[in-house]
Specification:
Elements: H1 2-26, E1 29-30, E2 40-43, E3 46-53, E4 58-65, H2 67-70, H3 79-102, E5 106-109, E6 112-114, E7 120-127, E8 147-152, E9 175-176, E10 182-184, E11 189-193, E12 200-203, E13 213-215, E14 219-221, E15 226-228, E16 232-233, E17 251-254, E18 257-260, E19 263-265, H4 272-278
Antiparallel strand pairs: 1-2, 2-3, 3-4, 5-6, 6-7, 7-8, 9-10, 10-11, 11-12, 13-14, 14-15, 15-16, 17-18, 18-19
C-alpha cells in the first residue's frame, strides 16, 4: 500500500512537472522590463519579440534570444538595443568599406572628386543609420562614429538610379557658390539638400546659370526669380523689392511681408523672437 502511495505521488509530480513545462513552453510570459518598443516574451524555451495586432488578431513571432536568456543565465536587452547592436555591426563594416573607397578619390576643387577611372563624385557628410535606434533604453556604442562621409556619383540620393555626374556636370566650369549648398556650371545650377542620411544632390530646375548669384546666407537669384537654397524657387516673392543680408540668417523681406526660409509671414503673425530676427534686415 505504501509503495502504491509513493508511486502515485511521483506520478502526480511528474504530471504536474510535465504540465508546468507544457504551460511554460506554450504560453508567452512577458519579460518585465522598461522598453519602448515591441515587448519580449519567454516562449518555447527561448525569448521572442511578439508583435500583437489587436485589430487583425494576428501575432508575429521573432526569436531574439536562446535558452540561456530564457533561464535567466544571460541578460535580456530591449528589442531596440538588439536592433541597434546589429546595426552597429553592419555600419562598422560599411565604414571600413567607405574608408577603403575614400583612398581612391582625389579632390579636383570645390568638393568635386575624381578617381583613377575618371569618374566624378561629390563628398557629403551623413549620420549612420544606427542613430535612429538611440533612446533612453539603448546603450550607444563608443567605437562607432555617428558621422561619416559618402561619395555621390549620381544625382538624387546617391544611388545608381539617377543620372551620373559624369553625364551631367561640366567639369571645366563647375564650382561651389560659397558659403552655401549651391553649385553651378555653365549649363546648370545645382543644390544639395542636407539631411542626416546624406541628403540629395539635384539640378535646380528653371534656374539660369549665367545670371545666378547668392543673396545673403540662404537665398539666391537669377535674372527672373528668387530662390531659397533648400526648396528652390519662391513662387510669390516680389523680385524687385526682395532683400536679405549676410549674417541675418534665413530671413528676408519684400513689399508683401517677410520670409523665413521658404515660408512667408506677415508682421502680425510673427512671435517676438521672429520680430527680433527681421530687425537685422533694417
Amino acid at each position: 500500500m505504501k509503495n502504491i502511495k509513493v508511486s502515485l505521488f511521483f506520478a502526480i509530480c511528474i504530471l504536474l512537472l510535465l504540465g508546468g513545462i507544457g504551460y511554460v513552453y506554450q504560453t508567452p510570459i512577458l519579460v518585465q522590463q522598461d522598453c519602448k518598443s515591441v515587448a519580449l516574451y519567454r516562449y518555447h524555451f527561448a525569448v521572442y519579440q511578439i508583435d500583437r495586432d489587436s485589430i487583425l488578431g494576428v501575432d508575429t513571432y521573432k526569436k531574439v534570444y536562446g535558452w540561456k536568456h530564457f533561464l535567466g543565465l544571460a541578460p535580456i536587452l530591449c528589442a531596440e538595443q538588439i536592433e541597434y547592436d546589429q546595426c552597429v555591426v553592419e555600419e562598422k563594416r560599411a565604414a571600413l568599406n567607405a574608408e577603403q573607397e575614400k583612398q581612391q578619390w582625389t579632390l579636383v576643387r570645390d568638393n568635386l572628386y575624381i578617381n583613377p577611372q575618371r569618374e566624378l563624385a561629390l563628398k557629403f557628410p551623413y549620420a549612420n543609420r544606427c542613430s535612429m535606434f538611440l533612446s533612453e533604453h539603448v546603450l550607444p556604442s563608443k567605437s562607432l562614429s555617428i558621422m561619416g562621409e559618402r561619395f555621390y556619383q549620381h544625382l538624387g540620393f546617391g544611388g545608381e538610379d539617377g543620372p551620373s555626374l559624369n553625364d551631367t556636370i561640366d567639369l571645366a566650369s563647375f564650382k561651389q557658390l560659397n558659403p552655401s549648398n549651391l553649385y553651378k556650371d555653365k549649363r546648370y545650377v545645382y543644390r544639395y539638400f542636407s539631411m542626416l542620411d546624406g541628403g540629395s544632390f539635384s539640378i535646380l530646375e528653371g534656374a539660369d546659370a549665367s545670371s545666378f548669384e547668392l543673396l545673403g546666407d540662404c537665398y539666391a537669384k537669377d535674372k527672373h526669380h528668387i530662390y531659397e537654397e533648400r526648396f528652390g524657387k519662391l513662387e510669390d516673392a516680389d523680385y524687385a523689392s526682395f532683400k536679405t543680408k549676410s549674417d541675418a540668417g534665413c530671413v528676408a523681406q519684400d513689399k508683401n511681408g517677410y520670409w523665413f526660409w521658404n515660408d512667408r509671414k506677415a508682421w502680425k503673425d510673427m512671435n517676438s523672437e521672429e520680430k527680433e530676427r527681421v530687425k537685422a534686415l533694417q
